[in-house]
Amino acid sequence: xxxxxxxxxxxxxxxxxxxxxxxxxxxxxxxxxxxxxxxxxxxxxxxxxxxxxxxxxxxxxxxxxxxxxxxxxxxxxxxxxxxxxxxxxxxxxxxxxxxxxxxxxxxxxxxxxxxxxxxxxxxxxxxxxxxxxxxxxxxxxxxxxxxxxxxxxxxxxxxxxxxxxxxxxxxxxxxxxxxxxxxxxxxxxxxxxxxxxxxxxxxxxxxxxxxxxxxxxxxxxxxxxxxxxxxxxxxxxxxxxxxxxxxxxxxxxxxxxxxxxxxxxxxxxxxxxxxxxxxxxxxxxxxxxxxxxxxxxxxxxxxxxxxxxxxxxxxxxxxxxxxxxxxxxxxx
Length: 332
Description:
There is one protein chain. This protein is of the alpha/beta class. The protein is built from 11 helices and 15 strands. Helix 3 packs across helix 5 and helix 7 packs parallel to helix 9. It is globular. The model is unreliable at 326-332 (pLDDT under 50).
């Protein structure tokens, strides 16, 4: 039985990847942050796999603890999905953001090199690493220009994985992941906020949805499809880096129209543009080029934006409908 070790298993990506690997007959071991064995596992429960994965407690910055874990488990594949996921939160505590994302990655890679170098390694990199890059079309050759502590930490982890591959011979691949969402996204992310807001308005728990720049453009995919791309990368004989994106950009306005229409509501009756939420430069059109992943991995996104948003709205209608009083739930 093939064994996979997943850091950040309790997150959105970790849950979908666990489901995919279990369906393929893998044994799945998940790492949660040291001292957090009681951390919420609702995403794993939501996908019906909480009882099928084995959770271990280890500090990702503890090299000796990671080495002992790798020697004991001897995984065939290691997926590093751990780290902070909200960009603006990294400005509130950049030191912790760096520790969780950058330091954790290099500690894990070094433990692999020393204790279990035969494992294939996946690093969850981010399109945020491109930052203020001049090119409007982003692919694997686009220079990086990170603009937040989150992006800088992700870039450090990404380049470290590349160096361990090119210099030390580890089978390390990086997925440069564009925005990917699911019903497990919270309201810290705009699609999660839209789905939550539409559900509350539909159920009579709110009248308006306050947003910032409606012309801001994103390439949104489903986390389930992105988990498939992660797995495909580690099935390749030669490790490499791949941009993972749908290739379709849409505005926040487009996403709102889809969500409100799905609920049978008129967007213009409920959306309020709040100047306090506006961010400069968000209207720039940026396109992702995932042609390399399509060509080399045979990967294609299966869930379109309309279906993704409908799934998120339906999940929030069900969740909020069960609540007597509907406080916003940030962590889903």
